[in-house]
Amino acid sequence: MTPKAPEEDFSDANIEVSAPKTHAVGIEGVFHSMEPAITHMGLARTAKLMTKINHKDGFDCMSCAWPDPDHRKLAEFCENGAKAVTWEATPVVVERSFWEEHSLTSLEDKTEYWLGLQGRITEPVYKAPGSDHYTPIGWDEAYAIVARHLNGLADPNEAAFYTSGRASNEAAFLYQLMSRVLGTNNLPDCSNMCHESTGTAMLHTVGIGKSTVSYRDFGEADLIIIMGQNPGTNHPRMLTALHEAKQHGAKIVAVNPLPEAGLIGYKDPQSIKGYLGKATQIADQFLKIRSGGDMALLQAISKRVLEAEAAAPGTVLDHDFLERHCDGFESFAAHMEAVDDREVERATGLSTAEIDELAARYLNSERVIICWAMGITQHRKGVDTIREIINLLLLRGNIGKPGAGASPIRGHSNVQGDRTMGVWEQMPDSFLDALGAEFNFEPPRDHGVDAVHGIRALDEGRIKVWMGLGGNLLGAISDTHLAESAMRKTELSVQLSTKLNRSHVITGEEALILPVLGRTEVDVQESGPQYVTVEDSVCAVHASHGQIPPVSDQVRSETAIVAGIAHATFGDRHGIDWPAMIRDYDVIRDHISRVVPGCESYNEKTRTRDGFVLPNGPRDSRTFATETGKARITVNELEHVECPPGRLILQTVRSHDQFNTTIYSLNDRYRGIKKGRYVIFVHPDDLADLGIEDGQTVDIFSEWKDEPDRVLRGFRAVAFPTARGCAAAYFPEANVLIPLDSTALESNTPVSKAVVIRLEPSSVPAGVGRPVTV
Ligand SMILES: Nc1nc2c(c(=O)[nH]1)N[C@H]1C(S)=C(S)[C@@H](COP(=O)(O)OP(=O)(O)OC[C@H]3O[C@@H](n4cnc5c(=O)[nH]c(N)nc54)[C@H](O)[C@@H]3O)O[C@H]1N2
Ligand SMILES: Nc1nc2c(c(=O)[nH]1)N[C@H]1C(S)=C(S)[C@@H](COP(=O)(O)OP(=O)(O)OC[C@H]3O[C@@H](n4cnc5c(=O)[nH]c(N)nc54)[C@H](O)[C@@H]3O)O[C@H]1N2
Ligand SMILES: [Mo]
């Protein structure tokens, strides 16, 4: 029986709260992943898809960018990968009647969860000026509307082209080409809200904005430090790699304000021991750090490394590496002398003994990997913190040798590939030169807007056409109310999407939804079945082949839609043959091979079973394409989050059952939450100090400079063993609390992990079950 879309929206009225878990996955996880899949897709479809996820002749799982091991297991996926696949491959579709029955105004108070459950979008729809409804429209007509707007702009910078990291390399390449042929570098993307701080820090210090490790390095490391990342939920297959690393003798240290289940223990569902229910301890040391304290912790460790060297000269630092490959050591060493232990303690909330223990672990390890994700990047000093990670690694030569390196763990499955293909508002001139030479035009050189600046430009009326290649910018960006009112000011908003979300409900004066083929689905064009390519977190590029028939014969591939819009807009301007690129994606890949560095012979290399690995200077040969040609040890001024008395530092995180703004269910199993999302996790002693009971309904006020407070009302306070002084709530709901201007220095990433808040007993009665925002 095909499941149905729900009519009623959801609330927290029946929320259940229990103690958090102390290990991840296990047999329970497999059960959790398969049950909804079989209910939604049926046994046959489920079996077909689940044995093809991440396989060499299969498709790339869209849930995260964790790399694939050389030897794939029969089931090379995780619970959350299975959820992502099920969510996309569901046979539930948005019926034509939906658009008649639901005005845009009526959809405004629907949750992301309800919107997503309406099913796959199967035909293009259009909202005319002044109308409160979408109505079905033909593809050619839809393309003509976009072309009319783009060709009518007074300045190409009045258009912006947002990308979310699920787009394939082929689609991304065409998309940035379309934007630059129009004449703008306005290519904001989800990365601006995600790992931008990583790119900024690493380009500056090691000359590449990507991980310097390969999959194999995890098995060869002595020590793996995981900072600001929750792999049990967001990169579950990483737990298998950590588990294997432990079997080879590696030690693991986790640094996190929350005692995340996957960082504490793990039951490997693919091993007999795990099957029988025994959890492996993951973290040998767990540092429950205060939010935003990582920079201080890293400086404190580096200081201890330098002290150890002073005590036993010539034995601690990798002098040969420092001399041959690095600069900046002297000023750094001088700066570290000033690190003040008391400030470190205040910033981190950690004891000297804990910091000494981590320093000793670092000094006793020859091969160290440091991994990080959003707990590091989404802070005001995120870029400096990552530079401190690089400093610490460089001191002992932990970059460019086996079992060691800097390993940012990416988010979206192809966010890294999209960047490689040119989706960035500030691509270097060398890339633009190659693009211009290949397509016989002069690409624009001025940098474009990023996500935050894009919202500002919309608000100021400077952007008239906004297009989204996937994603849900309005759900994902900070300052929800400002972002939504900004989007309403635009003339045309266009979304290329699989399923409904907030960015379809809040629109420009005219709006289009163009339904796309998902990654699980077979993509047949005139020349036959097509494959697309993606790049994972460790720079491995490979093909992804759709497996099941498309949800409807009306949906089109992202590649076809982008090229279709470009053709409708430009015709054959500059001699670019867009239809040829739709007919056969090999044509796109031939262009890629001539434009994108490292992608020579792209068709040949992506046709091999294993794909190929992009060149990586630091990893492959200790070459650093920085300003000085050396790896840069840098001096960064310490800062930590100042939090006045009676206030908490709020971070916004993902539950176990969500993918960014997509909500799979209202449960967060590992943290003990069922049937609800409007919760705020606070340490029990902080609750006591604030005079708030566990379970009480509270209003959350965010304080920012001299602006009026932002507030979310009607949240349930949950006593939780987070670090003292810290709190956590889920995004996207909590995004209203983050001011648009609260961004990381240099990278301009919203500070999603440090919002200064105060709690007050709620003015909304308990049990309303929906938050109220002002
Ligand atoms: N199932 C699933 N998979 C996903 C996603 C998803 O939503 N669902 N999203 C994908 C995307 S786009 C991304 S970017 C990644 C995100 O992967 P993560 O970065 O793991 O995601 P978050 O939920 O933001 O978790 C941030 C972690 O950092 C910790 N943290 C917060 N502040 C600090 C701090 O100041 N210091 C330290 N040391 N830790 C801190 C939090 O407690 C939390 O454990 O996952 C990707 N994979
Ligand atoms: N407060 C707070 N805000 C955050 C974060 C945080 O930790 N805290 N994290 C940030 C991060 S790390 C990120 S990456 C951003 C995410 O920002 P986005 O990438 O913009 O958001 P998603 O929720 O991943 O986008 C989901 C939508 O993508 C569409 N989609 C799904 N699959 C496909 C596909 O194959 N093709 C196309 N064309 N569309 C598809 C569906 O319509 C779905 O509704 O959010 C950021 N926002
Ligand atoms: Mo992300």
UniProtKB/TrEMBL annotation:
InterPro entries linked: Asp_de-COase-like_dom_sf, MopB_CT_YdeP, MoPterin_dinucl-bd_dom, Mopterin_OxRdtase, Mopterin_OxRdtse_a_bac, Prok_molybdopt-oxidoreductase, YdeP_MopB
Keyword Transcription: no
Positions of the Molybdopterin dinucleotide-binding domain: 648-704
Cofactors that this protein relies on: [4Fe-4S] cluster; Mo-bis(molybdopterin guanine dinucleotide)
Domain Molybdopterin oxidoreductase: 120-493
Alphabetized UniProt keyword annotations: 4Fe-4S, Iron, Iron-sulfur, Metal-binding, Molybdenum, Oxidoreductase
Domain of life from the UniProt record: Bacteria
Family of this protein: Belongs to the prokaryotic molybdopterin-containing oxidoreductase family.
UniProt name for this protein: FdhF/YdeP family oxidoreductase
Organism encoding this protein: Leucobacter rhizosphaerae
